TrEMBL record:
<feature type="domain" description="Plastocyanin-like">
    <location>
        <begin position="32"/>
        <end position="145"/>
    </location>
</feature>
<keyword id="KW-0186">Copper</keyword>
<dbReference type="GO" id="GO:0048046">
    <property type="term" value="C:apoplast"/>
</dbReference>
<keyword id="KW-0677">Repeat</keyword>
<protein>
    <recommendedName>
        <fullName>Laccase</fullName>
        <ecNumber>1.10.3.2</ecNumber>
    </recommendedName>
</protein>
<dbReference type="InterPro" id="IPR033138">
    <property type="entry name" value="Cu_oxidase_CS"/>
</dbReference>
<feature type="domain" description="Plastocyanin-like">
    <location>
        <begin position="158"/>
        <end position="309"/>
    </location>
</feature>
<dbReference type="InterPro" id="IPR034288">
    <property type="entry name" value="CuRO_1_LCC"/>
</dbReference>
<dbReference type="GO" id="GO:0005507">
    <property type="term" value="F:copper ion binding"/>
</dbReference>
<dbReference type="GO" id="GO:0046274">
    <property type="term" value="P:lignin catabolic process"/>
</dbReference>
<keyword id="KW-0560">Oxidoreductase</keyword>
<keyword id="KW-0732">Signal</keyword>
<dbReference type="InterPro" id="IPR034289">
    <property type="entry name" value="CuRO_3_LCC"/>
</dbReference>
<keyword id="KW-0479">Metal-binding</keyword>
<feature type="domain" description="Plastocyanin-like">
    <location>
        <begin position="432"/>
        <end position="545"/>
    </location>
</feature>
<feature type="signal peptide">
    <location>
        <begin position="1"/>
        <end position="23"/>
    </location>
</feature>
<keyword id="KW-0964">Secreted</keyword>
Length: 562
């Protein structure tokens, strides 16, 4: 960090940090219920929390513990996940349906205990059952402890920027149609910024999100990608972004003309209102989508940055330039530049166990009429050729209470079959995965390296892989097949990016390491919702340590029943 920034920060006193007191506090209540919203000229009911879309922002300080009592007043089973909150020893409140809990059924409630530890910056919460997270999500803002300032110049104001994805159809119908067809889900009709599509879509100009700024002031954009199926490029016309945080941790400040944000990821960006002429400027986001020949929602969502003085009559509002929709080098230039500010949280010179896993889209041969995948197949997805199957009870309870027959412990630590994973010409015999519920058991406190290997089965694409219960360092990435002899020589062991969601490049690999000091049952999955539905996931069970404070906490009084 430049020393001028360090000195500067002492001169800025918190101003707007505590203006929104609406969701401070130790106890919160979420009512999950339907509410009516009009977008793209049509009114429909969506599932919300407290009738808000996006849902309420939670404000906490580093290290706080809070409780959120979730009442399910909707029609569907639901669970809520606190994305990026490590929940030390407390997988009971992590949220993923059939992984750490049974769902909260309509009419029931569950009191989540959310234990913050080292997280700082921006995180988020979202539904983790069926596809409800499309509209059931909101930001979590973690401030430094009382009396501690940011390691960057204090912003004048802080603004959540939440990206979403909107379908005209009911999201449960989208999901049912998708599962029944065996093909790809229908594309969304719009992307949104803070719930609004922006004025490139019909009937949206009136409600487009506007950020009013004052010349000379500094703003902290707290960005969350809550979209279901797309990674985004984002930029603001005539303004650069200084990234200072990602996934609930600080980064070394780095100034960029555009950002890349995957579903599951967050970014904290400083924006300086430097246009003395005032006026208005577009901010825009659209898909970063690499799969060749695979359709996707290719629309652009916008919001407007508006100065409070100056010429409010420009004939055209400047539009930012965004990298081309399949520009992987632009995406990875950005991602790899987000270095952790150090010091390292654990030594990176060695690991205790390596898990080398393919992440693949697959296809099952057609067994009924619902086979809209390529060549009359049924699409699926896998890690190390296992397409994960959920059970009738969650893995955590099965593990904790020794219930047999729910899961196996044979998730392979290497691909069961080595082939040229990224070849442009793969035989269709490789397409079919195995359906199973296999987890990987990990020793307490061991250092785990996971190498994700993208494959070109069906079609190569980037995968945002998310690990619950931990943050990790991203040591290296590359296109093609991981070379275990040469690639590790190029790892960044000094200041690697520190995140909870990593993008595996199309037809490439990425290597991460984490320290397994959090006993529990932790989900690991692709954050593209269609891939999650198809089975691109597994579970890590981290064993208890020897000491009492190294063991999973006892379950809360009332867990939802299956
Ligand atoms: C077709 O089979 C798949 C499993 O192979 C199943 O998930 C799906 O529901 C079936 N579709 C219909 C319409 O029966
Ligand atoms: C905004 O950026 C565009 C393209 O880079 C440039 O042509 C234009 O002059 C800039 N406008 C202002 C007000 O700086
Ligand atoms: C997406 O839109 C861009 C223009 O914004 C166009 O150049 C590109 O071909 C489109 N891609 C697809 C796959 O439709
Ligand atoms: C807007 O306000 C700033 C600060 O007061 C001033 O420097 C700038 O010239 C103003 N711009 C216009 C176009 O009036
Ligand atoms: C990106 O898309 C363009 C056309 O839309 C295509 O010509 C080009 O080959 C694609 N690039 C990659 C790396 O797939
Ligand atoms: C793997 O496939 C890629 C893409 O078709 C090709 O460029 C590469 O040479 C192949 N590697 C090997 C070891 O055959
Ligand atoms: C995946 O598993 C299936 C079923 O066991 C097997 O037939 C297939 O060969 C495996 N494919 C790969 C690539 O490991
Ligand atoms: C579909 O069939 C064509 C022609 O046989 C083949 O080239 C292609 O790889 C197949 N795709 C899948 C996903 O099976
Ligand atoms: C809701 O959860 C209960 C208990 O796990 C389960 O029996 C039921 O099938 C679920 N309903 C749906 C629609 O998934
Ligand atoms: Cu994926």
């Amino acid at each position: 960090m430049p020393s001028c920034i360090k000195i500067l920060l002492f001169f800025f006193i918190s101003s707007a940090r505590f203006t929104n007191s609406e969701a401070w506090g130790r106890h919160h209540v979420f009512f999950v219920k339907e509410a009516s919203y009009t977008r793209l000229c049509e009114t429909k009911t969506i599932l919300t929390v407290n009738e808000r879309f996006p849902g309420p922002t939670l404000y906490v300080h580093e290290g706080d513990t809070i409780y959120v009592k979730v009442h399910n007043n909707g029609r569907y089973n639901i669970t809520i996940h606190w994305h990026g909150v490590k929940q030390p020893r407390n997988p009971w409140s992590d949220g993923p349906e059939y992984i750490t809990q049974c769902s909260i059924q309509p009419g029931d409630s569950f009191n989540y205990k959310i234990i913050f530890s080292s997280e700082i910056g921006t995180l988020w919460w979202h539904a983790h059952s069926d596809w409800s997270r499309a509209t059931v999500h909101g930001a979590i803002i973690v401030y430094p402890k009382h009396g501690i300032t940011y390691p960057f110049p204090e912003p004048y104001q802080e603004v959540p920027i939440i990206f979403g994805e909107w379908w005209k159809e009911d999201i449960m119908e989208v999901l049912e149609e998708f599962v029944a067809s065996g093909g790809a889900p229908r594309d969304s009709d719009a992307y949104t910024i803070n719930g609004q599509p922006g004025d490139l879509y019909p009937c949206s100009k009136q409600d487009t999100f506007k950020l009013n700024v004052k010349y000379g002031k500094r703003y902290l954009l707290r960005m969350v990608n809550a979209a279901m199926n797309e990674i985004f490029f984002f930029a603001i016309a005539n303004h650069s972004l200084t990234i200072v945080g990602a996934d609930g941790g600080y980064t070394k400040p780095v100034t960029k003309e555009y950002a890349v944000i995957a579903p599951g990821q967050t970014l904290d960006c400083l924006l300086e209102a430097t246009q003395a002429a005032g006026g208005s400027y577009y901010m825009a986001a659209r898909a970063y989508s690499t799969a060749f020949g695979i359709p996707f929602d290719n629309t652009t969502t916008t919001a407007i940055l508006e100065y409070d003085n100056g010429s409010n009559l420009p004939t055209t509002i400047p539009f930012p330039s965004l990298p081309f929709y399949n520009d992987s080098s632009a995406a990875f230039d950005f991602l790899i530049s987000l270095k952790s500010p150090g010091p390292l949280l654990f030594p990176l010179n060695k690991y205790d166990m390596q898990i080398y896993s393919t992440v693949s889209v697959n296809a099952f041969p057609c067994q009924n009429n619902s086979c809209a995948g390529p060549n009359d197949t049924r699409l699926a997805a896998s890690m190390n050729n296992i397409s994960f199957v959920s059970q009738f009870i969650d893995i955590l309870e099965a593990y904790y209470y020794n219930i047999n027959g729910v899961f196996g412990t044979r998730f392979p630590s290497v691909p069961p079959l080595f082939f040229n994973f990224t070849s442009t010409n793969l035989p269709s015999i490789l397409l079919t995965p195995k359906r199973a519920t296999e987890v990987r058991v990990i020793e307490y406190n061991s250092i785990i390296e996971v190498v994700f290997q993208g494959t070109n089965l069906v079609a190569g694409i980037d995968h945002p892989m998310h690990l619950h219960g931990f943050d990790f360092y991203i040591l290296g990435w590359g296109f093609g097949n991981f070379d275990k002899n040469n690639d590790p020589l190029k790892y960044n062991l000094v200041d690697p990016p520190h995140r909870n969601t990593v993008i595996v490049p199309i037809n490439g690999w990425v290597a991460i390491r984490f320290k397994a000091h959090n006993p529990g049952v932790w989900f690991m999955h692709c954050h593209l919702e269609r891939h999650l539905t198809w089975g691109m996931e597994t579970v890590f069970i981290v064993k208890n340590g020897k000491e009492a404070q190294e063991r999973i906490l006892p379950p809360p009084q009332h867990m939802p029943r299956c």
